[in-house]
Every structure is written in structure tokens, then in C-alpha cells.
Amino acid sequence: MTTSTSTAARGGDWLLEAPGAGAAFTPEELTEEHRLVGRTTDEFFDGQVAPAIERLEQKDWDLARALMRRAGELGLLGVSVPEVYGGVELDKVASLIVSERIARSASFGAAFGAQANLCILPILMFGTDEQKRRYLPGLVSGETIGAYALSEAGSGSDALGARARAVRQADGSFRLTGEKMWITNGGFADLFVVFAKVDGEQFSAFLVERAFGGVTSGKEEHKMGLHGSSTTPLVLQDVPVPAEGLLGEIGRGHKVAFNVLNFGRLKLGAMSTGGAKAAIGEAARYAAQRRQFGQPIASFGAIRHKLGEMTARTYALEALMYRTAGLIDRHMAASDAPRHLALLAALEEFAVEASIAKVAGSETLDFVLDENVQVHGGNGFVRDYPAERHYRDARVNRIFEGTNEINRLLIPGMLVKRALKGDLALIPAARRLLDEVMTAAPPAPAGHADGPLAAEAAAVAAFKKVALLAFGAAMQHFGARLQDEQETLLWLADLAIDTYAAESAMLRAQAVAALPAGPLHADAARTVVSDAALRVEMTARQVLAAMSEGDTLRTHLAALRRVLKVTPADTVAARRRLADATVQRGAYIFAS
Ligand SMILES: Cc1cc2nc3c(=O)[nH]c(=O)nc-3n(C[C@H](O)[C@H](O)[C@H](O)COP(=O)(O)OP(=O)(O)OC[C@H]3O[C@@H](n4cnc5c(N)ncnc54)[C@H](O)[C@@H]3O)c2cc1C
């Protein structure tokens, strides 16, 4: 199953080009097979996970194991795995659908993610055929529980600074010693992907079975949230690992670690989408039945604003998630390489988009869950309602899978690297733009500016020009020092995130403009683009002011004004329509 036959796009292309109609895969294009995967996951969740949440919160790991086995029986753990290893190998869109729906329980979602993304995936992409045959069937069926042990007390973001050691033995085997921290599924996992330095220097990945001996789990961490997910230290004391336990090559552990994280980040975006959609339903149902001053609170403009904004932001997140999954699937479909190598190449190609999904996902979810607590008032602060648990559970999303600061630094870092290599024509495009805006003639009309949502299309085209202006000016001003200018890099990341999210929402709404639901899609996209325009302007002004003053700054700001001419839309009316439809449905209205 593939999502398109068109030629593969390159990562970051969207920053420079105006995509044609149908360029972005949207949730409205899901196939019958995708929908079946969604229904199967929903039935599993509603029938088995939801009733188990309280017992999971009490750390009933036997139950967690049983649920994982059930997920395995239903094929949910093997959506990316070939049949020969026990999977059902579907496309990446399908695997996002599963992640999105499982994440309605953040705790079980974390356990599931550690198994499917952090343990199965590295074996699939880097394992030998023998390793795949030995481990994948058990992991895919849920009989074996997997975990991923990269972090240490002294090395979290700086993962390559790990101190765990692997000492080579005369017979080619290894002895592993060290202590890993915050390991999801740590309390009951059977198999660990462990990162350690061979002879104290060469960062490498290993497959370590608990049964090897010398492996102990520390005490469960006392966490703010995710109480239904096991998080423990992992202590390795002279653990004998056979030569066949090396995953990938000695000294190439960073390839394993970072590519797994690329996919994990995209999945985290999908899980955030699922959590946000579920919380919007909770907020809408509560707002419809809670009465104050003689009327449902859902009738107050303040609450309608919240529900509308929660819906619009989630719409954009969902749009960028599926767009990215579609890009990966198309890239893989266009490749002649074996599937696992095609996946690896696609994940590297779209690493920027995966980081955007992670940051946008975790921050949209936190916004939505915070507003969900607020809509619930005092009931949002007590345990009788799930809103407070969701709020606590979600906070870690901005910390793991690379903190949001690290991911924000990666976004412009990777784009600039590609530009310097000549893979992304950012530098000539920025030069052309500067020449263009400095001439007396008005800037060329923005791309895709006719048809539905023409004003939004023009605004998005303007965001791209602003981003180009800011990237170009920063590269020119700082040169190689740009990599040390973190504040500027974070702003550049925000420009890229807003541009990708706004364009994804706009393309999605354009694609369904003629359908009965088209006007509500347009309301969501209009709200997203209008909000983004305000942030883009503010961010760009700060970037430009950080690198120029006097006449140069005045010239830059004049260029910004010429490029970014966006008339604000009436988002009050748009949010009200979104809110009213959400309350009427009692759920997220764009549910796929
Ligand atoms: C519930 C939970 C589950 C987890 N599960 C796993 C797991 O299964 N496997 C695993 O290996 N790990 C896991 N982790 C660990 C997690 O990945 C790390 O906590 C995370 O990578 C951050 O590392 P750190 O905690 O050491 O923070 P630090 O790296 O110390 O960061 C602290 C702050 O400094 C900032 N910072 C750090 N470096 C830079 C820099 N260069 N530039 C700018 N800012 C910087 C960070 O953004 C952050 O704000 C888990 C953590 C938690 C809480």
C-alpha cells in the first residue's frame, strides 16, 4: 500500500517552493485499509486499554505485558515489520494511525512506543537477518518486551557522551558495564537496545537480553506523570554479550541512535495529535453539560474561543503529521533499495520535518491539555476527571526524544547544512529575494494565490519569503558562527515550524474545499494562518534586530514590511463556528 505515485520530494523543499495541488497527503485521503487499522486500534483501546488505565497507574506490569501481547495478536506492533518476521508491513501513514489512537492513554502509549519504535525499529533497520529472526517475532507478538537504553545520568541531550563501556573479549564477544537512566519499560523489559563505548571510545549499539546475567533494573522513578509507564535505571555489571549482539557496526552507534529518534519524533507528533483530539472531545462534552449563570459554559465567547483555538491548532498538527508521513511513503515508494534501507534514507531525508512534528506536537498538546483543565475549572484540578492526568502525563513530551530546545536547534542546523552542501537552494533564493525586495517594483505575486483560500495561500508564500530573508541575513551576518547563536537559531526554527504547519493546514483545507465540510476546514486553516502571521512577524523582527542596527536594520525591516502583507482574518467568527460544531459533535470534528 502506498500513498501516491508522484515523484519523491526532498526534505526542506517546501521552504522554497510553492507545492502544487495535491502535493500534501491529507487525512482525508486515508484508504479503506488505513481506516480498518484505525478501527482495530480503537476497538483494542476502548475494549482493553481504557478499562485498564487505573490498574496501570498502580504499576500492574503483568497487565501491561498482557496488553502488549494483545496488541501483538492484533498486528498492531508489527505494522512496519515484514511478514517474514511476523509483521503485517503497511505504510508509514498506517503506523501513525496506530500511534495516534494508542496515545489516548499516554502511559500505555509510552510503553507501546518503546516497544514498537525504540526496540523493533532499530533491529529492523540495522539488524542482521539472524538478529531479526531471533528477536522480531517475539517483539512483534508482544511475548518479548523491549526497551531502549541510551540516556545516562550525565548524558541526556549529549547522548554521545555516554560512559557505559563495552570491553572486547578475545573470542569476539563483549562485556558491558555502566548505568543507564530513565528507561521506559525498564522494570519489566526482556530485551534492551543498549548504547556503550567499545574500549571506552567507539560509540556502539548492542542487543542485551536480561537473561544474559548482570542486568538489573533500579527502582521505579517517582514521576510527575506517566505513572502507568515503567521508568527505571538500568544497571549493567560486566554483562556478557556475544559478538552477534552488536547492532550495526562498532563506532556507528550514532547512526542507530539518531535514525531511531527521527522516527520516534514523528511518532511522538502522532501521539500528541491523538491526545489532543481526545482532550478536545472531553472539553467539548464538559462545556456542553456544565452550566453557570443559567447557561452551558459552551455558550460563552471565552470558552468558544478556547474550543475553536484547540481545534484549529490540532487541525494544523494533524495536517503536518500526515503530510510528513506521506512524504516518507512517497520517498520509499520511489526507491529501489530494500525496504529497510529505503526507510532509513527517507527518515534521514525528512529529519527536519520529524523534528518539526515533535516540537509542534508536544507544544500543541500541552496547549490543548492546559485549556482542557481550564474548561473543566475546579474539576480540571482534581483526579475525578482525566483532564489533570493528561496534563501531567504530557509534560515529558517536551523533554524526551530530544528536548524541544535540541530539536529546535536541529531544524535550522540541518537546513543550513543542506544549503551549504548545495542540496537546498536556500542561499541563491535568499539573495534573489533580497534583490527583489530592494528594487522599486512590488514583490512578485505570491505563489498558488488563486482558487480557494487564496489569501491564506498568499500569506503562506509570504511566510516563506520572511523565513528566507531571516535565514539569508543570519547566514550572511554570522557565517560559520551561526551554529553558536542559539537564540537566533531558535527563532529560525520557529519561522520554519510556523511556515510548515500553516502551509500544511492551508493545503489540507484547499484539498477539501468543495466538500460539505470544506467551510469548517477553511475556518481552521484561516485561524492557523492568521495566528501564524502575527508570530512570524514578531519572530522575524527579533531575528533581524539581533544582527543589524541603524540603516541596515531599517532596510531589513522595510524588506520585511514589503514581503509580509497579511490582512488579519476574522478569527472570532471562525473559532466560534469551529467551537459550535465541536460541541454539537461532542468530539474533534475533523476526526479521520
Ligand atoms: C519519563 C521518561 C522516559 C524516558 N525514557 C527514555 C528511554 O526509554 N530511553 C532513554 O534512553 N532515555 C529516556 N529518557 C531520557 C530522556 O531522553 C532525557 O531526559 C532527555 O534526552 C533529556 O536529557 P537530560 O534529562 O539529561 O537533560 P539535559 O540534557 O541535562 O537538558 C537540560 C536542559 O538543558 C537543555 N540543553 C541541553 N543541552 C543543550 C544544548 N546543547 N543547547 C541548548 N540547550 C541544551 C535542554 O534542552 C534542557 O532544557 C526518558 C526520560 C523521561 C523523563
Describe the 3D structure.
- The protein is an alpha+beta fold and 592 residues long.
- The protein is 57% helix and 9% strand.
- It is built from 18 helices and 10 strands.
- The strands form 2 sheets. Strands 1, 2, 3, 4, 5, 6, 7 and 8 form an 8-stranded mixed sheet that branches. It has a two-stranded antiparallel ribbon with strand order 9-10.
- A hairpin with a 3-residue loop joins strand 4 and strand 5 (202-209).
- Helix 8 (301-333) packs across helix 18 (571-585).
- Residues 114, 148-151, 156-157, 182-184, 223, 226, 231, 396, 399-400, 403, 405-406, 486 line the site of flavin-adenine dinucleotide.
What's the short story on this structure?
It contains 18 helices and ten strands. With 592 residues, the protein is α+β, with helices and mostly antiparallel strands. Helix 8 (301-333) crosses helix 18.
Layout of strands and helices, then pairs:
Layout: H1 32-49, H2 53-57, H3 61-73, H4 92-102, H5 106-126, H6 129-141, E1 146-149, E2 165-168, E3 174-184, E4 191-198, E5 202-209, E6 215-217, E7 231-241, E8 246-247, H7 253-289, E9 291-292, E10 295-296, H8 301-333, H9 339-349, H10 351-376, H11 387-394, H12 404-421, H13 426-438, H14 454-478, H15 486-511, H16 518-545, H17 550-563, H18 571-585
Parallel strand pairs: 1-4, 2-4
Antiparallel strand pairs: 2-3, 3-7, 4-5, 5-8, 6-7, 9-10
Bound molecules: flavin-adenine dinucleotide.
The site of flavin-adenine dinucleotide has 20 residues, from strand 1, strand 3 and helix 12.
